[in-house]
Amino acid sequence: MTPKIITTLKTYTRDEFSADLFAGVTVALVALPLSIAIAIASGAVPAVGFVTAIVAGFLISALGGSRVQIGGPTGAFIVVVAGVITTHGYGGLVTATFLAGIILIIAGLLRAGQLVRHVPEAVINGFTIGIGVIIGTSQLPDFFGFTGAFPADFLEKIPALFAALPQLNPASLMTGVVTVVLIILLRRAFPRLPGLIVAVALTSAIVAFFDLPVETIRSRFGELPRSLPAPHLPEMSFATLRELLPSALVIAFLAGVESLLSAMVADRMIGGKHRSNAELMAQGWANIGSSLFGGLPATGAIARTATNVRAGGKTPVAGIVHALTLLAIMMLAAPLAGYLALPALSGLLLLTAWNMSEPHRWGEYARGRRSDLVLLLVTLILTVVTDLTVAIGTGIALGLAMRLSRRGVDDPEWTPRDK
Q1: Is residue 110 part of a domain?
Q2: Cβ neighbours, 10 Å, residue 224
Q3: Where are the transmembrane segments (predicted)?
Q4: The domain containing residue 283 runs over which residues?
Q5: Bridge-partner residues for 341, per DSSP?
Q6: Which of 97-106, 280-289, 295-304 has the lowest mean pLDDT?
Q7: What is the pTM of this model?
């Protein structure tokens, strides 16, 4: 369970540092708008996304079992985080994140890193698509410039969104659409450059320059802080721990699964091999660290890890540079981040939700084993209309039952794709 950074630094070279430096700064510029957007979508203030990317991003790279893993808040957590905040308040979320960190450390000590391979792929695909659906619908109010509160429940939210269409703000809609188009064009034209921040910054600058009637981070949430908050322990009473344990288990499961899937994607991209139990331990310490600073749950981020590899990242130093770059931005340029337009961030998350669902694989799912398709659809529907606890529990139980029913029939090998 030795962290990768210890072994990679033994033969570290100046050329590798140059590559890590460029990749770390590049990933930081991608992580900045994503972390803020994920925090807002989760029902938290933008600053906690910043804090999570810095603290958890640093610990995941410093202690993790992958050479190129980049950690921070991810879209997969939006649904569960929003639910915990609604039910238990933000303090409850911080406590649940702390507990999840302890659970992940125990899982690492018990060498549970290989167990992710036993989670049926159809379950992972189903709840990933379901999360994408929920994230996408949650971003529509800001994307269209609607005002007022909307129901959290998916089945109630859809008619409420249709009822709000007369409120549509053309300036907000154009800001969001132009941001999405720019991100797609920049990714295709300059795949190694941080097109996300360029697109969001450009459309936000247009909003500010022409004084368009579009909400920004500053207008809704006020100024972003210019330093990390002082660390402190969350509330740890027995009654609170018992109440939050189910949420902590879901957070730990999501963090463990997504981080190990991300590490597997990274292995495929660089031809390496991660240390799964060290990775779980790192996720545990990262979530404890994030909670001590009042941050969100964190895990390895597949898209940011892939960006790191494409930008030339070689070792965990790139992830550390990414965290330190974000800290420097917080200290030196936080007021500028307050001008980011909310429809631009919503457009970014809408595109993230679409990519999470992997539409290029839908035909593959439809042509696959019928029982796997049913399992995917059941998990997807339960994720959207109930909650992740029910969806994951039911999906895994059904998946294991299906696997037992076809003993003697080999399951196809699979590897997760870059989301």
Answers
A1: yes
A2: 21
A3: 21-41, 47-63, 70-87, 93-110, 122-140, 160-186, 193-210, 244-266, 320-353, 373-398
A4: 4-121+139-356
A5: 216
A6: 295-304
A7: 0.88
Contact assessment for residue 65 and residue 282, using Cβ atoms and an 8 Å cutoff: yes
How many folded domains does the chain comprise?
Answer: 1
Whether 59 and 286 have beta carbons less than 8 Å apart is answered as yes
Per-residue pLDDT tens digits for 237-285: 889 899 999 999 999 999 998 898 888 878 888 988 999 999 999 999 9
Give the dihedral of Cα atoms 149, 168, 350, 175; nearest 10 deg.
-120
- What digits encode the pLDDT tens for the residues 51-104? 999 999 999 999 999 999 999 999 888 888 999 999 999 999 999 999 999 999
In angstroms, rounded to a whole number, what is the distance separating the alpha carbons of residues 280 and 113? 7
127 domain residue, yes or no: no
Structure tokens at 152: 């959290």
Integer Cα distance of 31 and 345 in angstroms: 12
346 Cβ neighbours under 8 A, 6+ residues apart = 37, 139, 140, 142, 143, 176
Please report whether residue 361 resides in a domain.
no
For residue 71, give the H/E element and its range. Answer: strand 71-72
For residues 184-200, average pLDDT: 89
CA distances from 270 to 274, 282, 317, 352 (A): 11, 21, 16, 23
Helices 14-41 and 195-209: angle between axes, nearest 10 degrees: 50
Residue 419 lies in a domain: no
**Tokens 């631009």 label which residue?**
344
Q: Do the beta carbons of residue 329 and residue 49 sit within 8 Å?
A: no
